[in-house]
User: Fold this.
Amino acid sequence: MFWIALLPPDEDQRTAWGWWALQFTPRVAQVDEALLLELSGSLRLWGGKKALLAQLLQGHPELGPVDWAQGATSLIALGLLRQKLAGRAAPARAGLLPLETLTAAREHVETLARTGCRTWGELERLPRAGVSRRFGADLLAALDCAMGLRPQRYPWLTLPEVFDQKLELPALATSAPELMWSASRLLSQLQVWLQARQRGILALELEWTLDLKRLDGVKLPSHEQLVIRTAQPAQDMAHLRKLVGEQLARASIGAPANHLRLRSLETTPWAGASQSLLVEDRIQGDKLHQLVERLSARLGPEQVLVPQARADHRPEYRQHWIPAQQQAAASTPGKGRTKALPADAIHPPWLLPKPLQLEVRRDTPHYHGPLRLLTRPQRIEAGWWDQAGRGLALRDYFIARSEAVGLVWIYRERPASLAESESQAAQARWFLQGLYA
Assistant:
């Protein structure tokens, strides 16, 4: 057997280190203050003991340093780690480890020392029946596990289905930068969890607990939240830190906060990043969706807009402008979105913001001179369902030529009934709506 005992610097790092270690072995357990890893089944996969230790102890870029020790059993590794942290050299064999490095013997150290028993080996040589009667069977069971005479069973660590971590702030936070300092630690743990589960984050929630119940006589909520969404699955925390920082800067904190919580709301399987073999395709800097997300967080969602197609036969209503983040949420796999009508080949590339009424002379529309019709009419009848008050559109569209400006797209309004047609035949109105390059 080949066991490793790891001691991260704090409790938060211990959880993240445990998730990191799971990619090397499924046998990871948290025992007392340390993490215990059984690696004998993974040595061949990782190319031997030396290569495995180099990969494991290198750690995740977001994790801090870790103290470690190795041994033939889990308790020997743990005992050697405690000996190392105490500043003492490792003994030549496990029997020379002091009793205080064995958890089950700690409460009996002073009593055993008065009998001249100070090491594991000396305890092992005492009469077992007398030790069992005086100190209990658990001490002998732990010693047998430490010496490899009895198998040790642990509840193995598993990855949670949902990331949900909470930490207590080192001091009351009253501003966004103070919250962001602690949020960065949680984001580091999130990255380790995402990589271990092979997931990409699409939405997460940052929640802080308020330290006050009332402020100036006004009742306050117990918590405040901030939801952050991304256009594409992400594992890179550099972008998420910027995005969270921008949104926190715009958020208002009702009162000083004492705890911070981060949880994943939506994730998707991670497909990895695709890279082009062509040098010119390897664009440096931020991706477009990352820039859009940060601008939306900094300026407000309503200030960064994108066009979205609509299923409407009236050309001026075939698209409308929506927040870029709203479009990103609608285009996420599994989300529904409106299906637009296919583009017509004869539509011009440029539409006027508002149709321009044309002058009509002798039943011929004029725009910088008389217009010559080049196509048969394309008729539309649409808008009867419109609840916005824009009304029914009855039109005949034509491509026409102007000697001054070239090809234009015009339409003639049609009356709504035959009676109106007879009364307004001589007053048909023409409009310019689009131009061709």
The first strand starts at residue 3 and ends at 7. The first helix runs from residue 11 to 21. The chain has a mean pLDDT of 84.
